UniProtKB/TrEMBL annotation:
It holds the Pfam family M20_dimer. Coiled coil: none annotated. InterPro entries: ArgE/DapE, ArgE/DapE_CS, Bact_exopeptidase_dim_dom, Peptidase_M20, Peptidase_M20_dimer, Peptidase_M20A. The lineage of its organism: Bacteria, Bacillati, Bacillota, Bacilli, Bacillales. Its EC number is 3.5.1.18. Its cofactor is Co(2+); Zn(2+). Belongs to the peptidase M20A family. This is Probable succinyl-diaminopimelate desuccinylase. The keyword Zinc applies.
Length: 419
């Protein structure tokens, strides 16, 4: 390993208590989305960066959703502009009685940072903030620019976050890293597409005591629709040749690293019935039932194809209602492993962890798709206990939190010529 790398690794290691305090502080802000009020946590971040003389632009997207942009480096010696992106919002904590600890404690215990958002993604966000502040404090002469893009809205679709910023051309970079949770050796360099939709099944009301003789029960019809839509999982997929290798690598990763039996989901359509809403009263035959569906799409499949197939399937059970697309809509996307930002970050993972790392695909979706749509190569890497994300008792391993900050620091230095 180069001497300069070891010096920065040692510096982050020596300052890990400051990093972990930052993690705990961020977790203590109840930035659940919904409702999505980011004002308090955003003010804390602005003040934290100001301690190192870093100024932050605040862009209000409405509804107390604040997007933050802070940049260091003058960019006169290189046109490279690296964006470090993170989100401040977290999913709702849910039933507090089912947590073994206060979800907003930020407690550090038994080698873990504990609390809501620890893995998704406040510990990763802390690592980005810590690394940029560290580089600023040392006055590293970066040849390009390094920007923090901190967004308030990712967990509910992100419409007031990254796409809001890009639509207004508030920032543009040549590469990006998002601190979304990942395996410590395997950043995610691509993700499946998505197609969310809803539809309403009509019925005819009547007295519950006369069902099923009289009335047309919308919920019963909806049950048939739900069962029929499971066939979307078997939608035929023709993988493009250029992604077949990374698909194979990802399947092997899931089987070995995740110790899970869902590797086939990478090249198939997933189907989740998200919500069912219908009926007015127990003793009234329901006259309507609304269903929402979340499908994730492999490479080679587009949302319009899935919608058309869903309509065909529903017609077979005599449901001909309109399907309304909503939420995530997009095709599978990726950044090739040969892109400079991927090669450099993966190399630094290997240096820090002293193990072999490589990029894999993600079976879900994230803000990365907006970066790629804007022509910005991007990958995701963040500390996490993956099994606890969006669940009770969320936590992140301290060792991975510290190591991720090392990787962020080294990647910024190498990509922007500040070694």
């Amino acid at each position: 390993m180069n001497e300069w790398k070891q010096r920065w690794i040692d510096e982050v290691e020596a300052r890990q208590e400051d990093l972990l305090k930052l993690c705990s502080d961020l977790i203590r802000f109840p930035s659940e989305n919904p409702p999505g009020d980011s004002r308090e946590i955003s003010r804390y971040i602005v003040d934290y960066l100001a301690e190192a003389g870093i100024q932050t632009e605040i862009h209000d997207a409405g509804d107390h959703m604040l997007n933050l942009i802070a940049t260091i480096g003058d960019g006169t010696a290189s046109d490279r502009h690296l964006i470090y992106c993170g989100h401040t919002d977290v999913v709702p904590a849910g039933d507090l009685s089912r947590w073994d600890f206060d979800p907003f404690s930020g407690e550090i215990r038994d080698g873990y940072v504990l609390g809501l958002g620890a893995s998704d993604m406040k510990c990763g966000l802390a690592g980005l903030l810590f690394s940029v502040k560290l580089l600023k404090e040392f006055n590293v002469p970066l040849k390009g620019q390094l920007s923090l893009l901190i967004v308030p809205d990712e967990e509910t679709g992100g419409h007031q976050g990254v796409p809001w910023v890009f639509d207004r051309k508030l920032i543009h970079g040549t590469a990006a890293v998002i601190a979304e949770p990942s395996h410590p050796l395997h950043p995610t360099i691509g993700q499946k597409g998505s197609c969310w939709f809803r539809f309403t099944v009509p019925g005819t009301p009547g007295h519950g005591s006369l069902s099923p003789i009289l009335g047309d029960n919308a919920i019963v019809k909806a049950a048939a629709a739900i069962q029929a839509l499971q066939a979307l999982h078997n939608f035929p997929v023709q993988l493009p040749d250029e992604v077949k290798e990374i698909i194979g690598i990802t399947k092997e990763y899931i089987a070995t690293r995740e110790n899970a039996d869902f590797s086939t989901i990478i090249d198939r359509v997933s189907v989740n019935i998200g919500t069912i809403e219908g009926g007015t009263k127990t003793n009234v035959v329901p006259d309507r039932c609304e269903i929402t569906v979340d499908t994730r799409l492999p490479f080679g499949v587009e949302p319009a194809q899935v919608l058309a197939e869903a309509k065909r399937i529903l017609a077979e059970v005599d449901i001909h209602e309109e399907l309304h697309p909503e939420g995530f809509q997009g095709i599978a996307n990726w950044t090739p492993p040969t892109d400079p930002i991927v090669e450099e970050l993966v190399q630094h993972i290997c240096d820090v962890k002293q193990e072999k790392g490589y990029g894999v695909l993600q079976w879900a979706s994230s803000d990365a798709r907006h970066f790629r749509r804007a022509g910005i190569p991007v990958l995701q890497y963040g500390p996490a206990e993956l099994s606890t994300i969006h669940g009770f008792n969320e936590k992140a391993p301290v060792r991975d939190v510290v190591d991720a900050a090392k990787v962020y620091t080294l990647t910024a230095l190498s990509y922007l010529g500040g070694e």
